[in-house]
Amino acid sequence: MTDIKAALRAQRIETPSWAYGNSGTRFKVFAQQGVPRDPYEKLADAAQVHAYTGIAPTVALHIPWDKVDDYADLARHARDLGVGIGAINSNVFQDDDYKLGSVTHPDARVRRKATDHLLECVDIMDATGSDTLKLWFSDGINYPGQDDLRARQDRLAESLAEVYDRLGEGQRFLLEYKLFEPAFYATDVPDWGTAYAHCVKLGPKAQVVVDTGHHAPGTNIEFIVAFLLREGKLGGFDFNSRFYADDDLMVGAADPFQLFRIMYEVIRGGGFTDEVAFMLDQCHNIEPKIPGQIRSVMNVQEATAKALLVDRAALSAAQQAGDVLGANAVLMDAYNTDVRPLLAELREEMGLAPDPMAAYATSGYFEKIAAERVGGNQAGWGA
Amino acid sequence: MTDIKAALRAQRIETPSWAYGNSGTRFKVFAQQGVPRDPYEKLADAAQVHAYTGIAPTVALHIPWDKVDDYADLARHARDLGVGIGAINSNVFQDDDYKLGSVTHPDARVRRKATDHLLECVDIMDATGSDTLKLWFSDGINYPGQDDLRARQDRLAESLAEVYDRLGEGQRFLLEYKLFEPAFYATDVPDWGTAYAHCVKLGPKAQVVVDTGHHAPGTNIEFIVAFLLREGKLGGFDFNSRFYADDDLMVGAADPFQLFRIMYEVIRGGGFTDEVAFMLDQCHNIEPKIPGQIRSVMNVQEATAKALLVDRAALSAAQQAGDVLGANAVLMDAYNTDVRPLLAELREEMGLAPDPMAAYATSGYFEKIAAERVGGNQAGWGA
Amino acid sequence: MTDIKAALRAQRIETPSWAYGNSGTRFKVFAQQGVPRDPYEKLADAAQVHAYTGIAPTVALHIPWDKVDDYADLARHARDLGVGIGAINSNVFQDDDYKLGSVTHPDARVRRKATDHLLECVDIMDATGSDTLKLWFSDGINYPGQDDLRARQDRLAESLAEVYDRLGEGQRFLLEYKLFEPAFYATDVPDWGTAYAHCVKLGPKAQVVVDTGHHAPGTNIEFIVAFLLREGKLGGFDFNSRFYADDDLMVGAADPFQLFRIMYEVIRGGGFTDEVAFMLDQCHNIEPKIPGQIRSVMNVQEATAKALLVDRAALSAAQQAGDVLGANAVLMDAYNTDVRPLLAELREEMGLAPDPMAAYATSGYFEKIAAERVGGNQAGWGA
Amino acid sequence: MTDIKAALRAQRIETPSWAYGNSGTRFKVFAQQGVPRDPYEKLADAAQVHAYTGIAPTVALHIPWDKVDDYADLARHARDLGVGIGAINSNVFQDDDYKLGSVTHPDARVRRKATDHLLECVDIMDATGSDTLKLWFSDGINYPGQDDLRARQDRLAESLAEVYDRLGEGQRFLLEYKLFEPAFYATDVPDWGTAYAHCVKLGPKAQVVVDTGHHAPGTNIEFIVAFLLREGKLGGFDFNSRFYADDDLMVGAADPFQLFRIMYEVIRGGGFTDEVAFMLDQCHNIEPKIPGQIRSVMNVQEATAKALLVDRAALSAAQQAGDVLGANAVLMDAYNTDVRPLLAELREEMGLAPDPMAAYATSGYFEKIAAERVGGNQAGWGA
């Protein structure tokens, strides 16, 4: 149990700056009270999540949403708040030029613009000290024949190579894949195989990031995790949960058992280290933002604790013996354990309140920002 | 062939006013040139679609997007353009009050407001002479436990009953179902069974509308069509096509064979009449709007022509004989026929250009609206 | 807690006779040791499940697999073993005549034969005292056009009406639906809506049975449960679990959270009574049969216990207040509770061993049947 | 058109020996008249398909189903019938030893046995002159925890390496992937990415084979085809079609537009050569076998003809111009063309009847085999 607590204490979950801003569906963005109006306020909110959970010390930025004049100042601001800058997320999907693609666009001018943005993100990594660039491309096509599937791969490869070459010592990029949306007929990086194949060719600084909401129905995500770890190509996670498509709900809310299985494969595959980034990528469309993030961090933590509890010796023995029910039971024993008392204890040992949700709720922070953050433009997807 | 031509000549496909405005995904709405700025301009664009296809004589309105002071004037404007007002579409999903639902909201005040909007839509039907109200509810929940699934059905039933009672002579409403989006865990009318059960209880003025993009993967839509026709409960279609979710692409673009099978069941089930409304409900996110609608109308027309070509006597004989391959071949013979020459001929008989896409492209209409419609706010989802 | 224990003590889960025989996929049936060779031996195995769990007192039969000369004798045998005969399951899918359908077959002779079988099943209900007939039809078509979708509904309705009329006092039938398999293009009862519509027309003795593995990806099963309970049309469950299709794995093995949500809706909707039959319908292709059933009964029991633990007053208050995270948290608190100690305690109060799996494993029963049941034909799907 | 005809004349589609035997689902195998009883009779039936289509000159074997004492004699027999032996398909899923896996089984003895079978298949390639080994593994697990996902990859890699090393000059193997069935929780080669990664490591003699029925819902298969061709790793196809799962219906029956798109990517990617094997892998559960194969071959041929008709210069110009509707229209023009007259003409130029289905039906072959093939054991899956 000491080992488990030590492991849990060392866990690091990164929250995304955009989770603190407004978000919604194509039908409606519902505004909330107290939403940040700039990157500084987003960091302040993220610092709250860390203050109550103790395991969310970094914040991912999204460029250009989090563009500032002075990144060193922003990084300093973060440090003052007790957090740090995490991954830099590029954005090549919200400019009118990108209607038919960014790095895979048929027009070389648009591709140049998109690649330049990616290179600029590396500059921001240099300025902020971030070591990770996250690349998600909305590129794809809506209609069969609209563009040439293979030529788009050539263009993608060319842009990725240029960005790869620009990466400095200790820097890497994570390539994200997504089955569909916003492109509907074909996306240019639809699955882990595509991302993997590109990363293998590029080299060790290119790795795959698994967004748990980006798969076809029926996909076994933990298999992908196990496989990528075996290949040394798992760079990290964008955690969230989904019932149908890329719903971007709180991680663990739709299928907590799946989250547990994923965390088990991470641990079994040696991925429970700093080499694999555990990031949240969620939209709190209807629930309050900061509590939504706190709950999500706790959900990952609970799944991790359960995965750490698996009796791996017993599991391995049952597996070797071909004892189907016995092996399954070992896993389920860990999953069925209520780890909340253990985590409450751990938090107290870390000097935190045992119940982060309750502690935040009674802290007065929400009332403060609701009162203060009036006027100005609320941050949201695209701002 | 004369019969088939007569049937095709009588076909009526309704285009939606919102298809002429800008649309997009949650990631980005790409603006296009020449997009209408008010309902009057939308009707003008819709009239173009009818002018070139000859079978799109009505336009669906969306309230409040198409709210005007004087609906009689709008209807007159439509008539002057050679088209008429079709179904009235309600909208209870774009007000901040509806964050947790409209007619199923836990708060009675919000439910009242939503139902009042629906009743107002019936007023607009009276004012415009529309006989059809289309009800789609974005209502649902994102998280297990968020609200009570059954209580929401009670509230839904109550609101529907009030609207039903308000319907006048010759008026009806169509209840739409949708698997998910914008609610992710549960929607309050997720499938045809739910819509059907409510409609059966209400009576003959309540019918189900099938949006072809609103089903789970693997759903056999033509079965639903056949079943609802058998029950007298198929009120109409919202046509579009999808590869993954509710993609709202041009109908027939993703699976033209499916569209043909649907049209075959419509005809076989006696639904190829004015009682079943054939409506488009699409978003042209990246392609130009008017040509997108023309192509869509043509796609439905081609599928209809093929379905009319099915040799039903031969089909029935093969089915009765248990001749699996023979029966399938009868259907496929019709599907594999190139009906474009027949339709070109029909158009010429109707005094139209044989190729609507080409005729529109060279008409100069787009250049005209691109030049004229500068300034003002472009219409879009939500406006 | 006393109430919860009382409720759990009253729970009744029915195991299926066919779960004790061999089963497999289309690729291979793997034989196991000690498998029963006749219905008497199946009942003996089922009695073991009841002996160790205390809540599995009835056994479903499958006709003709469980055909015997003297059903009264079989029922007596069951009673002697401490169990009773549960639902009678019809089988109109394993005769060469049914290649193109049974009650929906284009040939009236085959339909007659199929309906006669269903009527015979009611005779067996009379003979065994069973009050429930379960109707699953493999009927459907593989190719578009193969048969007429609507005519098949007419035939189905005709057969169901005949069977309905034959039902005696206190008897009912449950109509099962299934998305696909063994028919691939269309099944004649593909979804709950179809089953529901037929049952509503027939009357109160016709109800819908929900097999948890028979839905399209993304279907919210607990919504269906809630809806059918609201309509008084939920007759029972065929429990099992699935990752992809109709995998027929142990219930709760694939998504224990979903099982919990289903049980919550059952309880909330007043379905936790004898009116709703809780049946297992599973195939233990690779795991041993009796332990597979014991584990499954325990999984349902654990989900039930958690569902009973939900603080419904707190839940309702949070729902009414629109507190999304709070309401979700109430549900999750119950789900995250480890109910195994409670259930162990309950079993001891019932005079049972606290750990049914361990108790069975050390009982020597398996060794006994493995030694005794040598020679003869092992029972399996189709025998 | 001359070029297109020349290309179509050169097309080669391989039919599988097992398609001529009985097949079914886990629920029932329906026996048909005239079904072959040994590999010699299967080849005779396959020769009929070639005789009427002119483009099905080879037959895939399945070991041990098609085991004979003298493969040279079997090959001679094939030649006498006008056909040749195609790919050798291994079978490591129908022995009781393989209940928990074959090459990935936890027990080294079983793995040895499975690998030995694969090596024996290479011996049979030597004996028959076949140059292609097709590897499909049913390996996987049904329950989380049942076995170690990663260890199974290690075992798979080890076995594949041994088989790879055994391949002679001019021989290759094709590795097949499959999402699920008969394993339900995880399969050991679930997707193209897994197959690809193994093949890349092994070298040029290892390639991926795409079974069109083995994907998750929503997967864009033609993207995979385009990607694998770009990487030089597309070895061939197992063609069939599906509505839901691995239905193994006639290719082109469920989604002819998808088949066309696949063939378009094959041609565009330079894969329309002898390097890519076009094989059928289907089960004619309810339709007659030989006509089922003839129809399937024709379906692939029709899709190919349409794909060859695509005006690639016009397509490329529209794509470069960002003309979404124009580019889509170029593709659809080809798809909407009725190619049956062209193919009838081609057949007559090849000395064949213009309508293969009709020609076979009136040939008397079926009546002959139905009369002759009485007694003995009909071939089927597993025999």
Automatic annotation (TrEMBL), chains A, B, C, D:
Residues 47-242 form the Xylose isomerase-like TIM barrel domain. It holds the Pfam family AP_endonuc_2. It comes from the Bacteria. Transmembrane segments: none annotated. Keywords: Isomerase, Manganese, Metal-binding. GO terms for biological process: L-lyxose metabolic process; rhamnose catabolic process. SUPFAM superfamilies: Xylose isomerase-like. One of its GO terms (molecular function) is metal ion binding. NCBIfam families: RhaI_grampos (TIGR02635). PANTHER family: L-RHAMNOSE ISOMERASE. This is L-rhamnose isomerase.
